[in-house]
């Protein structure tokens, strides 16, 4: 049975889509069967997987409105996983879902018949705490929160944690916080190092040991419709997401990549060492 992981943070531009696409591709590279669900009307995860969002016959919008689950599946062949894509149609869902029965459970119900087919289902949530993200979190077993290592990183985090608590209380008692990813980390920037330390102070080993550095290859890859490991498998961004996928599947004892790649020792950059 698949582990369903929502990638969420209502803050915009923190690396949700980059993390979703590249974790999905890294897990696929590690021979896991993966479904990526694009739950954002921007359709960035769809485009970044090499699928043109304008060409979708059926999309996640149709899934949320009762289309048969496997009808909208697209093979993102080059990326190595299957995709439920999104485009601007999904904007309508925030407006019409409130009128629909079981509105919080639409994605959960859509995934039910197909989840056994996969090892991992990764859900890329939009930058809001609306009904779409709610559907993502109700469908998920756990949530991963990407945090950009900058001044306002922690702002809004309490609202997100409260939302997770509310969902646990009302809709999905099994929802857990899988972990926090530090994204766009720049070891030369003292603020970036400070925020990274603060996150570890607050959240301990819930913070993934792997830091995702600011890496131009990660920003370039989507314009080629490729996850970074297909674009430049040797770049530091590709290695970071492979290592994160390693942490996710629980092979923490053999990290493929660790804090050393930032050029700092773990104790300097504040990364916790779950191995002690
Ligand atoms: P939104 O809230 O709009 O959905 P998001 O949280 O999904 O945004 P991304 O789209 O993943 O964030 O990233 C925002 C921008 O930052 C993109 O242009 C992306 O290419 C770039 N980016 C993300 N992570 C990195 C990184 N580690 N290094 C360099 N650029 C990055
Ligand atoms: Mg996004």
Which structural class fits the helix and strand makeup? alpha/beta
Question: What pattern of helices and strands is seen along the backbone?
Answer: EHEHHEEHHEHEHEHEHHHH
Overall 3D shape: globular
Averaging pLDDT over every residue, what do you get? Answer: 89
Strand content: 15-25%
Major β-sheet annotation: 8 strands, mixed
Helix content: 25-40%
H/I helix tally: 12
Structure description:
- This protein has helices spanning 16-29, 44-48, 60-64, 91-96, 106-111, 131-139, 157-170, 190-203, 216-220, 228-231, 236-248, 266-269, and strands at 3-7, 34-38, 73-76, 81-84, 120-124, 142-148, 176-185, 207-213.
- 36% of the residues lie in helices and 17% in strands.
- The chain is globular and about 50 Å long.
- The longest helix is centred in the first third of the chain and has 14 residues, at 16-29.
- Strands 3-4-2-5-1-6-7-8 form an 8-stranded mixed beta sheet, with helices on both faces.
- The two termini are 31 Å apart.
- It has 276 residues and is α/β, with parallel strands linked by helices.
- Helix 1 crosses helix 11.
- The protein binds adenosine-5'-triphosphate and magnesium ion.
- Adenosine-5'-triphosphate binds next to helix 1, strand 7 and helix 9.
Can you give me a brief rundown of this structure?
Helices cover 36% and strands 17% of the residues. It is built from twelve helices and eight strands.
Give a quick set of tags describing it.
36% helix, globular, binds adenosine-5'-triphosphate, disordered C terminus, 17% strand, 8 strands, alpha/beta, eight-stranded mixed sheet, 276 residues, binds magnesium ion
């Amino acid at each position: 049975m698949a582990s369903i992981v929502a990638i969420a943070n209502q803050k915009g531009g923190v690396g949700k889509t980059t993390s979703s696409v590249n974790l999905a591709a890294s897990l696929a590279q590690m021979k896991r069967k993966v479904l990526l669900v694009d739950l954002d009307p921007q359709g960035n995860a769809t485009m970044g997987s090499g699928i043109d969002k304008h060409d979708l016959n059926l999309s996640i919008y149709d899934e949320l409105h009762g289309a048969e689950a496997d009808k909208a599946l697209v093979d993102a062949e080059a990326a190595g996983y299957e995709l439920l894509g999104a485009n601007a149609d999904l904007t309508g869902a925030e407006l019409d879902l409130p009128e629909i029965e079981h509105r919080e459970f639409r994605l959960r119900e859509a995934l039910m018949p197909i989840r056994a087919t996969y090892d991992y289902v990764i859900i890329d949530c939009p930058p809001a705490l609306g009904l779409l993200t709610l559907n993502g979190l109700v469908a998920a077993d756990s949530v991963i929160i990407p945090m950009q290592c900058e001044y306002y990183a922690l702002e809004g985090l309490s609202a997100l944690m409260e939302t997770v608590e509310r969902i646990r209380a009302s809709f999905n008692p099994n929802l857990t916080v899988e972990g926090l990813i530090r994204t766009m980390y720049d070891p030369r920037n003292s603020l970036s190092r400070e925020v990274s330390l603060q996150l570890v102070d607050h959240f301990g080993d819930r913070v993934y040991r792997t830091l995702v550095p600011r890496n131009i290859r990660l920003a370039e890859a989507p314009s080629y419709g490729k996850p970074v490991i297909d674009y430049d498998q040797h770049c530091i961004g590709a290695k970071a997401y492979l290592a994160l996928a390693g942490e996710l599947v629980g092979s923490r004892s053999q990290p493929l990549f660790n804090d050393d790649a930032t050029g700092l020792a773990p104790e300097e950059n504040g990364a916790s060492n779950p191995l002690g």
